[in-house]
Amino acid sequence: MVKRRDFFKVGGAGLAGMVSRPLWAGGGHNSVHSPADPSTAEHGMKLPRPDAPFNGVIRPSAKDATPEWPKPVTPPPGAPNVVVILLDDVGFSVTSTFGGPVHTPELDRCAGQGLRYNNFNTVGICSPTRASLLTGRNHHRVGFGIVTGQANGFPGYNNEWKKSVASVAQVLRGNGYSTAAFGKWHNTPDWEISPIGPFDHWPTALGFEHFYGFLAGATDEWEPPLYAGTAPVEPPKTAQQGYYFTNDIVDRSIAFIHTHESLAPEKPYFLYFATHATHAPHQAVLEWIAKYRGQFDQGWDKLREENFARQKKLGVIPADAELTPRPEQISAWETLTDDQKRFFAHQMEVFAGYMAETDYQIGRLVKTIQDGPNGDNTVIFLIVGDNGASGDGGPQGYDDFGYALRETMRERMSHLDELGGVNSNDHYAYGWGWANATPFKGVKKMPCYFGATRDPMIVIWPKRIKEKSGLRTQFLHVTDVAPTIYDVVGIDFPSEVDGIRQEALDGTSFAYSFDRPDEPSRHRVQYFEIEGNRAIYKDGWIATGYHWAPWDSSKHFDLDYTHDRWELYNVARDFSESHDLAAKYPEKLRELQDLFDVEARKNQVYPLGGGDLRAKPPSISDGRREFVFYPDLPRIPVPAAPDFTKSHRIDAYITIPDAEARGTIVSCGSRFGGFAFYVEDGYLFYDNNYADRAHNVITSGTKLPHGDVKVSYEFVSHSTPASYIESIVKGTFGDGRLFVNGQLVGEGKISHFARLPPFYGGFGVGRNYVSPISQAYELPFAFTGTINKVTVTIE
């Protein structure tokens, strides 16, 4: 075993304090720009560790020799298990733990065991927050200035996780930890997600020995496209049989913990558990939704006031905090129609049930962790959101990811009770997002305000943190989590990983706060920027640059930032950014604006708008017009498939047995959009599913002959999308034709054909993956004849 005093000999003289006195006992860095000591990256240890020299004795004869087994790398004695639990799109004021309307007894229990943090800040949107969380660096430095799927070819926005910013999983694994990730992983470039990789930016290449979950920004809780390691897999059962994603990943995590404790209880583990909940689509078991019937009839204005009162009573916000007003673009609840009130109230009921069910599942996981033999020596960072509440639903919310032909409210009311179910694909109206950000301004994607960045955090460590139900108010940032992990584990940050020199950390350990509730924050400076909205914090002051909002989106794609409104707040005294002091202290504002420029240049933030150009990202199918697929092809994600929005032809060379064959020839998408080319009752079918609201079905006029047959589908587009993003949002239209052995057997109009984003199902040959694209069959609807090959030609 490596002794701890020897473990740190690889470091410079500055590490001596870490050896005898962990940072939580009173050390720590306090740099303004980069809290981590740059000397750590220059002189620290290198991973992986070199092989230990052989210390046995070699003689010509084994009878005179002394063997010695190679010694495995071991962490410092007493190193804790580390668990990071990350929720998605929740909002500061959703849970009862932080004054919200959703009863979260499991989070309450967790908070009662340890500490609550009310000044913890994320980046303000998904992938960037996760990149910072797992590296301890600012998001642009990792290449995640924008979410995966909106990458552009600038260093801060290319979504290419750099080798010089190793993940905390890589570092812990290199120091003797077992590592596993379950749930949402939104940090692999879309163009690298395929069965042939490359796999450099998958979880298993970034330090995680085990991964089970999905890779996109959103998924379907009932029917997700899953991966185990790098292999596409299907859920163990159907939604009708009771499958639910959050339940599944809790089961998998529990199995990992049990297996680990059975085989290597002395070895610590690092578990990264990231739910899809409560990201849209908002989906939950009906019984959970029913618990909240009638509890949001008062509307978002009143709910915000109620949240604010509860927060004051709980003490999770200061007594002098002020409630910020509703933006004028968000409708006052009292101005809505009765149908709108009923429908919107049910949207929030569904969301509340979604959160409540998630709380229950987290409770199962935490109980398993704490019931284990090392439960008291497990530090859990429970982060209730990767950004603030979401405003992506627009003024009325949506039931279909926004791709369907818009329905009237009367039409939407006809499927009110479907919200949250298997056929639901919904998001609440942004009035609820605003209410769920109480008491702050802003929502997700608006890091100019705390409504986008401020998230509750709970830290539990029974062996080390003795205070119960404590509240901590130090300014923290998501980049601080990784340094804190290194601190509490007692390891040095490496100078090299896999031969690559490592960039210094941006975060600062906050382990000092475990014992010192009143000590000032050591994270003194932090910039924020997403899609042009930006801010700069320093020592209790923050300057905010407002560019756009979901309810004021006219400037969303405007790349002129010279006219953006800058505001100034003293947040050491003004918790909710209620009083703009820009006019009173112009010099202070200018000082912080200049500091933002300095930080932006250091962190690859420029050019502003680098993630807003919406250029077509790279694709494995780029430049190809001809494709050949075989029936043993595994499920591939939609971005890896050909671009079917263009005029194209599908030719399938199949064999029909003496009996009539049935099943899928080619499928692409899910129940919420895509197409299926299939055989049923001996006839050939093509079903174009537009957002599950319109199905264009073309049928052959005659049955297919037996034997070897060439069946074809041809699409002639009559429109050309102006951009890649328009090909997703608006799609195209044209004519579709079916052929058998070259003879026309059916034709029809294709009214709407849209390019599908990556969270829509998958592409397959010989079966339908994830969920049924056509309403005419159930999964997997595998082809009962023989498919020899399928060719696709893009015209």
Describe this structure in words.
This protein is an alpha+beta fold and 795 residues long. The protein has two domains: 81-516, Alkaline Phosphatase, subunit A; 626-794, Jelly Rolls (Sandwich), CATH 2.60.120. 21% of the residues lie in helices and 21% in strands. The chain has 17 helices and 30 strands. The protein has a ten-stranded mixed sheet, with helices on both faces. The chain has a six-stranded antiparallel sheet with strand order 20-30-21-26-27-28, with no helix packed on it. The longest helix is centred in the middle third of the chain and has 34 residues, at 338-371. The chain is globular. Mean pLDDT is 91; it is low at 1-42.
Largest sheet: 10 strands, mixed
Individual helix count: 17
CATH architectural group of the largest domain: 3-Layer(aba) Sandwich
Ends apart, CA distance between termini: 64 Å
Number of beta strands: 30
What is the topology, as strand order, of the major beta sheet? 8-7-6-5-9-2-10-11-3-12
Q: Any idea what the radius of gyration is? A: 27 Å
Shape type: globular
Stretches with pLDDT under 50, minimum 5 residues: 1-42
Helix content: 10-25%
**Number of domain modules:** 2
Derived structural class: alpha+beta
Question: Remind me, CATH topology of the largest domain?
Answer: Alkaline Phosphatase, subunit A
CATH class of the largest domain: Alpha Beta
The amount of beta strand, in percent, is 15-25%
Q: What would the average pLDDT be, to the nearest integer?
A: 91
Mind telling me the CATH superfamily name of the largest domain? Alkaline Phosphatase, subunit A
